[in-house]
Each structure stands twice: as C-alpha cells, then as structure tokens.
Amino acid sequence: MRAVVTMAGEGTRMLPATRGMRKEMLPLFYRGRQGNATLAPVCHHVVRTLHDAGVDDLVVIVGPDQDAAVRYFQPDDAFIQRHLHHPERLIETLALHHLLSEVKFHWVTQRSPRGFGDALLRARATIGKHPFLLHAADAVLWEPVPGRLPRAMEELRRREGAAVVLLVRHVAEPRNYGVVEGSFAGRIDGARFLRVTGMEEKPERPRSSWAATAVYAFSPIIFEALESEARRRPAELEVTSAISHLIAKGEKVFAVILGPGDGQWLSVGSPEGYLRAVKRTYALAQRTPPPRTRG
Q1: Which tens digits make up the pLDDT trace of 251-274?
Q2: Domain around 186
Q3: With contact defined as beta carbons under 8 Å apart, do 252 and 275 qualify?
Q4: pLDDT tens digits, 168-185
Q5: Could you please report the per-residue DSSP string of 42-101?
Q6: What CATH number does the domain containing 59 carry?
Q7: pTM above 0.85, yes or no
C-alpha cells in the first residue's frame, strides 16, 4: 500500500523552537519494547502508524531545509557498531532499522509553503494512478490497535469506489477546523462512518461538529481536483477545497468517525497542543502494551 506524509510546513506557531528544528521532529512518548517510556519524533509515530496499516511505499513531502528528517529515516550501521557495547540502548533504534527495511521512502521537496494541498500535489508524479493514504506529520493518531483505522479507511474507499475517505472526530468548537456534513451510513471494522455531503474550512457558522483530522484515503482523482482548484486559488491550495470540488461533481466521499473507544488524535501544531500531546502520550506509554513489529 502507498501513502504520503507531509512535513513541509514552517511551524510558525511554534517559533522560535521550530527555527532550528521542524515541529515534526519534536519528541512524543510511546512504550518501548522493554516496557519503558520512550521518546521518538512525531514523524516516527506517523510512519509507524502507516506501517502498521500495511504501508510499504511512502512519499514524504519535505521543505528545502529538512536534512535532519531525511537522515533520521536512513539506516546508520556505523552508529550501531559504535554503540554495541550498550546493546540495551539500541533496542528501539534496531526496531526503527527493521521498519525502514520494510518501507520504501521517496523524498519530494516543496520549495515554498503554498498550503497542504500544494504539498500533496507534489506527490503526484510518484504516486501515479494508485490509491493512497495521506497523513500529516504534525499530529499522532494513537490507537489501541495500531493502524486499524487507516486500514479500515482504505478498505471502505475500495469497497464503495469512493474518491475520498476522511477521518473525523466530534469537537466542541468546530469553527477552528475543516467541518464535514453528512449522515450515518454504516460501520467498517466496528467504526461508524458518514456519507459526506459537504465540507468547509473553518466556517463562521458550522453545520456540524464533525472536524476532519489530517488522515485520508484517496483515489488518484484527488490530484485532478487539486489541479483544478490550483487554477482558481494560486496563492494557497487546501485539500478541503479539492474535496468540496469532488463532492460538487458527485463523487463518493465518506468519513470514518474516530470514536471514544477507537483512539485519540494528538496535534503538535501549537505550544498548548504539544504540551497536551506530551502529557497524554507519557500517560499512554505507562499503560499501553509494548508495540509489536508487523511481520
């Protein structure tokens, strides 16, 4: 399965920390294989989620100054050799190396920040005519069963012949999000889903409380919609606009609901959000079973 990860944003809400390190490289906790609370960059968590969902081919959209992220996802056998005298410290790094051996990475640069949709459009040449998942790398989808919801989203997209499947959650203040309208249409792998009839970015008068997270399952038709919207909105291109374009054309769009028992969405897009994510992932690391390597 293919996927796209976007990590080209400048993170201006997190300055000055993000001047020297992009927000996607900020650390969050998980429970390591020895049962201890372990730190890894947000983007590491995202790649693990996609790997658990079955992704083995990954396009990563980066900015022009993201050498640190590229280095992080490259095996470093010399580093391993230098630290063999402390094997207990290498357990998580060796697990990362194993993951990297199972996922093919493609690196694509977005030269200037022109929106989430423009970043996604950079992946078109690599993705081609294949369906794919999309996950922004400035938030973590924590699930009791890792990878379950993205896998269910792609299954729903394939089963229904849909153009788009979003992941949504109920929020108290929807005006700050991309808001989805729709009606309940069934269940997929135990999770409820909506048939989407409309979507609007940060509306003044929201028509629902269903907010989109930055996880999607797409058919390649999304690229045609993005290019069409780019001609109308050359300054900044948003994925929301392209999805609305597809809904207006009569394409099928669904939204899987992230319910209370399905997991949590933890964003690091602001200082307050990052603090909440650190606290929450530390608490989860204390009680979550150690991760299992997909084989």
Answers
A1: 999 999 999 889 999 999 888 999
A2: 145-262
A3: no
A4: 999 999 998 899 999 999
A5: HHHHHHHHHHHTT--EEEEEE-TT-HHHHHHTS--HHHHHHTTT-GGGSHHHHHHHHHHH
A6: 3.90.550.10
A7: yes
